[in-house]
Write a structure and sequence with these properties.
- By secondary structure, the protein is of the alpha/beta class.
- Helix content is about 40%, strand content about 30%.
- The protein has one domain: Transcription Regulator spoIIAA (2-Layer Sandwich).
- The chain has a 6-stranded mixed β-sheet with strand order 1-2-3-4-5-6, covered by helices on one side.
- The chain is globular.
Protein backbone atom coordinates (compact mmCIF):
# COMPACT_ATOMS: atom_id res chain seq x y z
CA UNK A 1 0.00 0.00 0.00
CA UNK A 2 1.27 3.43 -0.95
CA UNK A 3 1.34 6.64 1.04
CA UNK A 4 -0.92 9.41 -0.23
CA UNK A 5 0.00 13.07 -0.37
CA UNK A 6 -2.18 15.76 -1.92
CA UNK A 7 -0.79 19.28 -1.91
CA UNK A 8 -3.04 22.29 -1.51
CA UNK A 9 -3.38 23.23 -5.18
CA UNK A 10 -6.78 24.85 -5.62
CA UNK A 11 -6.15 28.42 -4.43
CA UNK A 12 -6.48 27.40 -0.79
CA UNK A 13 -10.00 25.96 -1.17
CA UNK A 14 -8.72 22.41 -0.77
CA UNK A 15 -6.78 20.98 2.16
CA UNK A 16 -3.39 19.37 2.18
CA UNK A 17 -3.70 15.63 2.78
CA UNK A 18 -0.93 13.37 4.07
CA UNK A 19 -1.70 9.68 4.70
CA UNK A 20 1.14 7.38 5.76
CA UNK A 21 0.49 3.68 5.13
CA UNK A 22 3.55 2.57 7.11
CA UNK A 23 2.84 4.40 10.37
CA UNK A 24 -0.92 5.00 10.14
CA UNK A 25 -0.32 8.71 10.75
CA UNK A 26 -2.71 10.84 8.71
CA UNK A 27 -3.27 14.58 8.51
CA UNK A 28 -5.72 16.87 6.76
CA UNK A 29 -4.97 20.59 7.09
CA UNK A 30 -5.98 23.93 5.71
CA UNK A 31 -9.42 24.81 4.41
CA UNK A 32 -11.92 22.68 2.52
CA UNK A 33 -14.61 24.43 0.54
CA UNK A 34 -14.43 23.00 -2.98
CA UNK A 35 -17.68 22.67 -4.92
CA UNK A 36 -16.86 19.08 -5.83
CA UNK A 37 -15.60 17.89 -2.45
CA UNK A 38 -16.89 14.39 -3.17
CA UNK A 39 -14.52 14.06 -6.12
CA UNK A 40 -11.61 15.53 -4.18
CA UNK A 41 -12.12 13.29 -1.15
CA UNK A 42 -12.89 10.10 -3.09
CA UNK A 43 -9.21 9.21 -3.34
CA UNK A 44 -8.88 9.78 0.43
CA UNK A 45 -11.93 7.63 1.15
CA UNK A 46 -10.58 4.90 -1.15
CA UNK A 47 -7.21 5.01 0.64
CA UNK A 48 -8.86 4.76 4.08
CA UNK A 49 -11.01 1.84 2.90
CA UNK A 50 -7.92 0.05 1.60
CA UNK A 51 -6.00 0.79 4.80
CA UNK A 52 -8.66 -0.61 7.14
CA UNK A 53 -8.99 -3.90 5.24
CA UNK A 54 -5.24 -4.44 5.27
CA UNK A 55 -3.51 -6.05 8.23
CA UNK A 56 -3.06 -2.69 9.98
CA UNK A 57 -4.03 -2.42 13.65
CA UNK A 58 -4.17 1.34 14.25
CA UNK A 59 -4.65 4.69 12.57
CA UNK A 60 -4.26 8.26 13.82
CA UNK A 61 -5.90 11.21 12.10
CA UNK A 62 -4.97 14.81 12.86
CA UNK A 63 -7.41 17.36 11.47
CA UNK A 64 -6.21 20.95 11.27
CA UNK A 65 -9.03 22.45 9.26
CA UNK A 66 -9.77 26.14 9.76
CA UNK A 67 -12.93 25.96 7.70
CA UNK A 68 -14.95 23.42 5.73
CA UNK A 69 -18.22 23.60 3.83
CA UNK A 70 -21.21 21.26 3.94
CA UNK A 71 -19.99 19.17 1.00
CA UNK A 72 -16.67 18.64 2.75
CA UNK A 73 -18.36 17.76 6.04
CA UNK A 74 -20.24 14.93 4.33
CA UNK A 75 -16.96 13.49 3.09
CA UNK A 76 -15.29 13.86 6.48
CA UNK A 77 -18.21 12.06 8.11
CA UNK A 78 -17.87 9.26 5.57
CA UNK A 79 -14.22 8.87 6.60
CA UNK A 80 -15.26 8.78 10.25
CA UNK A 81 -17.89 6.10 9.58
CA UNK A 82 -15.25 3.92 7.91
CA UNK A 83 -12.96 4.45 10.90
CA UNK A 84 -15.79 3.55 13.28
CA UNK A 85 -16.21 0.18 11.54
CA UNK A 86 -12.45 -0.35 11.78
CA UNK A 87 -12.65 0.38 15.50
CA UNK A 88 -15.62 -1.98 15.95
CA UNK A 89 -13.51 -4.71 14.34
CA UNK A 90 -10.69 -4.23 16.85
CA UNK A 91 -8.63 -1.47 15.24
CA UNK A 92 -7.28 1.40 17.31
CA UNK A 93 -8.49 4.80 16.10
CA UNK A 94 -7.16 8.11 17.40
CA UNK A 95 -8.64 11.32 16.03
CA UNK A 96 -7.27 14.70 17.05
CA UNK A 97 -8.99 17.87 15.90
CA UNK A 98 -6.99 21.05 16.38
CA UNK A 99 -9.03 24.24 16.51
CA UNK A 100 -8.83 27.76 17.84
CA UNK A 101 -9.74 28.06 21.50
CA UNK A 102 -12.73 30.31 20.97
CA UNK A 103 -14.07 28.83 17.73
CA UNK A 104 -17.37 27.62 19.16
CA UNK A 105 -18.80 26.87 15.71
CA UNK A 106 -15.94 24.48 14.96
CA UNK A 107 -16.22 22.86 18.39
CA UNK A 108 -19.93 22.22 17.75
CA UNK A 109 -19.19 20.75 14.32
CA UNK A 110 -16.59 18.39 15.78
CA UNK A 111 -18.95 17.36 18.58
CA UNK A 112 -21.58 16.59 15.93
CA UNK A 113 -19.05 14.46 14.03
CA UNK A 114 -18.37 12.55 17.23
CA UNK A 115 -22.08 11.97 17.90
CA UNK A 116 -22.88 11.02 14.30
CA UNK A 117 -19.95 8.63 13.92
CA UNK A 118 -19.74 7.18 17.41
CA UNK A 119 -16.02 7.99 17.53
CA UNK A 120 -14.17 9.82 20.28
CA UNK A 121 -12.61 12.94 18.79
CA UNK A 122 -10.02 14.73 20.89
CA UNK A 123 -10.42 18.50 20.63
CA UNK A 124 -7.04 20.14 20.96
CA UNK A 125 -7.15 23.92 21.45
CA UNK A 126 -4.63 26.10 19.65
CA UNK A 127 -3.91 29.79 20.02
CA UNK A 128 -5.67 32.02 17.50
Amino acid sequence: MENLFIANTFAHSSPQVSLNADTGDCEILGESYMESADKYYQVVIDWVNEYVISDKTHIKFDFRLNYFNTNSSRCILEIFLILREFEKNGGEVIINWYCKKFDTDMVEEVEDFSLDSGLKIHLIPIEA
